[in-house]
Design brief:
By secondary structure, this protein is α/β, with parallel strands linked by helices. The chain folds into 3 domains: 141 residues, N-utilizing Substance Protein B Homolog, Chain A, CATH 1.10.940.10; 55 residues, 2-Layer Sandwich (Alpha-Beta Plaits), CATH 3.30.70; 194 residues, Rossmann fold (3-Layer(aba) Sandwich). The chain contains 17 helices and 13 strands. α4 crosses α7. The chain is globular and about 70 Å long. It starts with a helix and ends with a strand.
Length: 427
């Protein structure tokens, strides 16, 4: 167990220092090729868990330490072990013993006594320590204080539920490719393999017990794709018709682009600024037997679209804080800074203004983010409408089942992440 604890602690250290969670886990897999699938899963679960509950763990540790630990490896080993004691079924005795041994593996043998004392003290005083940690919003919800304050101001009626939803384990949600199979038929295929699932939205299926996609019937053949139920709404909101020329301007990794092609016979241009991510779009489309023109381009740079012509529909799924998808990417909570919002809103506005020039009269543009913050969402749209007299905000037609939203803001819950949508028509 100490190897797993050490690898998880090291990954947490690097994430807190500014690296993305995905990049750090990939680095672990490269550096430890002998890890079994079970061991990889254990490391991943610990890192995700620590980052989801970091605020609570630090509030507990602060009560057990006379001063903050200067050694990051020991600090993060304690975070991992405290998470294990509070959130896993592993033997408390084994967790403590292995954490003490892990100090040697990490090169900090002098910390063994401290780690042993802190963890055993936690076990003796657990209830009182947990209660004290939960007495502040930072400890209760495990978010930075600025994030909590901002969300409470933006969503005074919903902020607590939104924070709690962000700490849930996300479900495995699939989008059924209606060109290949109906949702009912795919649910039947799952049932035949004793895979419990339930419908969500128009094309979605939530698998009750997540599993590797290789175990899903028809995944390799393009019958389904992995996509959150909230993200699945985008394609349907664009009101597509056969023969339309459509632009997905920030398309990677290609889930929404593929859904557009599954819904209608359109001429699709899928663009992204990142060439490597553009390759992921190509791979996804190939698996689904779908075809689109691909373009590497900066959506906010007018010159990038000089030869592209005009479009009947545009999907602008713009770069954002990603504050609505933290349950899938818990590192976002600790890597984001308040100043990021202003920087991103400027970029979003530039993209919107650029893409609007490419939209034909009578055409529609869907503005989308996976953010919860008002500056990136409703306020961004209000400012856009003030700048463009030829733009009008259209009502959103959302599925009635399984989707909660207010004024275009999808409220994250157990069924879906947090997204924002605004449909704009050029008049």
């Amino acid at each position: 167990m100490e190897q797993i604890q050490c690898l998880a602690a090291a990954a947490v250290t690097r994430v807190i220092s500014g690296s993305s969670l995905d990049a750090q886990l990939a680095a672990v897999w490269r550096g430890e090729p002998a890890l079994t699938a079970q061991q990889r899963g254990a490391v991943q679960d610990l890192v995700y868990g620590v980052l989801r509950h970091l605020g609570r763990l630090d509030a507990i540790a602060a009560q057990l330490l006379q001063k903050p630990l200067a050694d990051a490896p020991v600090r993060d080993l304690l975070r991992v072990a405290l998470y294990q004691l509070g959130h896993t079924r592993a033997s408390a005795h084994a967790i403590v013993d292995h954490a003490v041994t892990a100090c040697v593996r990490l090169g900090h043998p002098q910390a063994r006594g401290l780690v042993n004392a802190v963890l055993r003290n936690y076990l003796r005083r657990r209830d009182d320590l947990d209660a004290a940690a939960a007495s502040t919003d930072e400890g209760r919800y495990s978010y930075p204080s600025w994030w909590i304050v901002k969300l409470a101001a933006d969503h005074p009626e919903h902020w607590r539920g939104m924070l709690e939803a962000g700490n849930l384990r996300p479900p495995l949600t699939l989008r059924v490719n209606r060109r290949r199979i109906s949702r009912d038929a795919y649910l039947e295929r799952l049932a035949q393999q004793d895979i419990a699932a339930q419908p969500v939205g128009d094309d979605g299926v939530i698998v009750t017990k997540p599993r590797p996609v290789t175990q899903l019937p028809g995944f390799a053949d393009g019958l389904v794709s992995v996509q959150d139920a909230g993200a699945q709404l985008a394609a349907g909101l664009l009101d597509l018709g056969a023969g339309m020329r459509v632009l997905d301007a920030c398309a990677a990794p290609g889930g929404k682009a593929a859904h557009l092609l599954e819904l209608a016979d359109i001429d699709l241009l899928a663009a992204d600024i990142d060439g490597e991510r553009l390759q992921r779009i190509a791979e996804n489309l190939q698996r689904l037997s779908l075809t689109a023109q691909l373009l590497q381009a900066d959506a906010g740079e007018p010159g990038a679209w000089r030869d592209s012509g005009s479009f009947d529909r545009i999907l602008a799924d713009v770069p954002c804080t990603a504050s609505g998808v933290v349950r899938r990417h818990p590192d976002i909570k600790w890597l984001r800074r308040p100043g990021d919002i202003a920087m991103l809103t400027k970029r979003q506005a530039r993209i919107l203004d650029t893409l609007w020039q490419l939209l034909r009269g009578g055409g529609k543009l869907l503005y989308a983010t996976c953010s919860l913050f008002h500056e990136e969402n409703g306020l961004q749209v209000e400012r856009f409408l003030a700048r463009h007299a030829d733009a009008r905000l259209m009502p959103l037609m959302l599925p009635a089942d399984g989707i909660k939203q207010t004024k275009g803001q999808l409220l994250p819950d157990a069924a879906h992440d947090g997204f924002f949508y605004a449909l704009l028509e050029k008049v």
